[in-house]
Specification:
CATH architecture of the largest domain: 3-Layer(aba) Sandwich
Distance between the termini: 63 Å
Number of domains: 2
CATH class of the largest domain: Alpha Beta
Oligomer: single chain
Structural class: alpha/beta
Helix content: 25-40%
Number of strands: 14
Radius of gyration: 20 Å
CATH superfamily of the largest domain: Periplasmic binding protein-like II
Shape: globular
């Protein structure tokens, strides 16, 4: 009887551990449409969210999404407040020094958004002008590479777009799907703003899921899911839903 109790208890512990392993908590700065944002029903939705849900089904984990402000999102990962970051994080050599990344799941470029009357055709045309970006993003890095541009950073990209719309700044640099969302489809902005340039930096930029350095268990599960989504072509339907062709 005693042996049976021990075996039963061990089985419950293993089941609990298995259930825990199948849940991955993702931090996301849900201010980056159409990739990650909060919809009218106060739900976190978007391309990356659907992608991780699909990856979870393929790899056997349940994603849980936690809204976290971009400022501090990486520090929270290092402190163990969540398992991973699913928030349009571009894979860079600098970031790889302090965190691990999944295989890429989306190729991205930087785009310049301006008001319709602007004559700018490239980022260099913005010298002497104020250009907004979200703080600590690759858009900020791109702007700061061009001497003469006045860089203004924001906690959220939507605040930069609003300032551009109201004439407080002359341009915004952000990821191209986000630029398209604001400049081409957003009812408030689409008749006032345009994408004037796609910025070619020479480096290919990809989104990846960030995990704490050395967390192989979570990384392997996420990679398994992403690879399955890509192998089965499930990503194409997600792309069409949120970004189009």
């Amino acid at each position: 009887m005693f042996k049976k109790i021990i075996l039963t208890s061990l089985a419950l512990v293993l089941m609990a551990g298995s259930a825990w392993a199948r849940t991955i908590v993702f931090a996301t700065d849900a201010t980056w449409p159409p990739m990650e944002f909060v919809d009218a029903n106060k739900q976190i939705v978007g391309f990356s969210i659907d992608y991780m849900n699909a990856a979870g089904k393929e790899a056997g984990f349940t994603p849980v999404f936690k809204s976290v402000a971009w400022d501090g999102i990486f520090a929270g990962l290092g402190a163990g407040k969540y398992d991973a970051i699913c928030s349009s994080v571009s894979i860079t050599e600098e970031r790889k020094k302090v965190m691990d990344f999944s295989v890429p799941y989306y190729k991205v470029r930087q785009a310049l958004v301006v008001r319709n009357e602007s004559k700018a055709k490239k980022l260099e045309d913005m010298k002497g002008k104020k250009v907004g970006t979200q703080i600590s993003t690759t858009g900020t890095f791109a702007v700061k590479k061009v001497k003469g541009i006045v860089s203004k950073t924001y906690d959220e990209i939507g605040l930069a777009i609003e300032d551009l719309f109201n004439g407080r700044i002359e341009g915004v640099v952000c990821d191209d799907p986000v630029a398209a969302q604001y400049a081409l489809t957003n009812e408030k902005y689409k008749n006032a703003l345009k994408i004037s340039a796609v910025i070619e930096t020479g480096d290919v930029e990809y989104y990846g899921i960030a995990v704490k350095k050395g967390n192989k268990e979570v990384l392997n599960l996420i990679n398994k899911g992403i690879k399955a989504v890509q192998a089965k072509g499930l990503d194409k339907a997600i792309l069409k839903k949120w970004i189009g062709q």
